[in-house]
Amino acid sequence: SRMSTNASMVADFVLVGFSRLAHLQGLLFSLFLAVYLLTVTGNLLIVALVSADTALQSPMYFFLRILSALEIGYTSVTVPLLLHHLLTGQRHIPRWGCALQMFFFLFFGATECCLLAAMAYDRYAAICEPLRYPLLLSRRVCLQLAGSAWACGAMVGLGHTSFIFSLPFCGPNAIPHFFCEIQPVLQLVCGDTSLNELQIILAAALIILCPFGLILSSYGRILATIFRIPSAAGRHKAFSTCSSHLIVVSLFYGTAIFIYIRPKASYDPATDPLLSLFYAVITPILNPIIYSLRNTDVKAALKRTIQKMGSAEI
């Protein structure tokens, strides 16, 4: 591997990724390209629908539009580079490129953590405090919640990335992963990293578990309110507005907790990239599917848009 003039500094890394599956490179390229194009198209469609349709102007859809934009950014941090590596077989990434990828991946991921908590608060306010809802989630409050989520993401990305890349990398430069994920990069740091690991696990626990705790408490109150609704139809309607969000939260937080809140020693280069694949590549495509298939308003808006396009053509 190429070294910089300072012997303790690795100038670039090699993303091992799926190179062991040499015979499947073409198939993997086609598969990831199809998933990426569908993810971007699906999420762009939601952004466009929510922006254009006057029926989708409530706080819930304001947050959904941001979530879809986040998913596009989140998947674009890893998949295009992975496609390039699969196509060319060239797997080097400069140190600064690795740091940049880690920053943006953490930035979008942590922002989504906070945004999902804001979306849970929105559902809580709509179901448990319907009379105060316009006040609790005014335009100003929505902007403040969204701004706080982005700020939190930026701080997490900057904090973790600058911290990890200030550590010395002097040995092997092969990252057993398809992108610059914290755990595998940390394995390449020289010397004892147990204190760094502890700091990262504690920070991850704070970033992941605090919003998750807020989501759980929101849903605890929501369920208590739903069970008090006398009619079965009323209960079903109230719960159906939350089910999409609950599925997305379960998928996102389930994998995030498993990946980040554990020691480096338990990292397995054979199975962990597959897990990362799930939350870095698969969950972003599921969001538009979950929200559009389970949400009557989004389905109605899509229908109206198609009808408008049809009548415009005539």
UniProtKB/TrEMBL annotation:
Q: Where is the G-protein coupled receptors family 1 profile domain?
A: 42-291
Q: Which SUPFAM superfamilies match?
A: Family A G protein-coupled receptor-like
Per the record, its GO cellular-component terms are: plasma membrane
CDD domains given in the database record? 7tmA_OR10A-like (cd15225)
- A Pfam match: 7tm_4
Major location, coarse class? membrane
Write down the superkingdom of origin. Answer: Eukaryota
- Which membrane topology describes this protein? Multi-pass membrane protein
Q: Where are the transmembrane segments?
A: 27-50, 62-83, 103-121, 141-165, 198-217, 238-261, 273-293
Q: Does the keyword Transmembrane helix apply?
A: yes
Cellular localisation: Cell membrane
Cite a single GO MF annotation: G protein-coupled receptor activity
The text of the family note is:
Belongs to the G-protein coupled receptor 1 family.
Protein known as? Olfactory receptor
Q: Which organism is it from?
A: Sciurus vulgaris
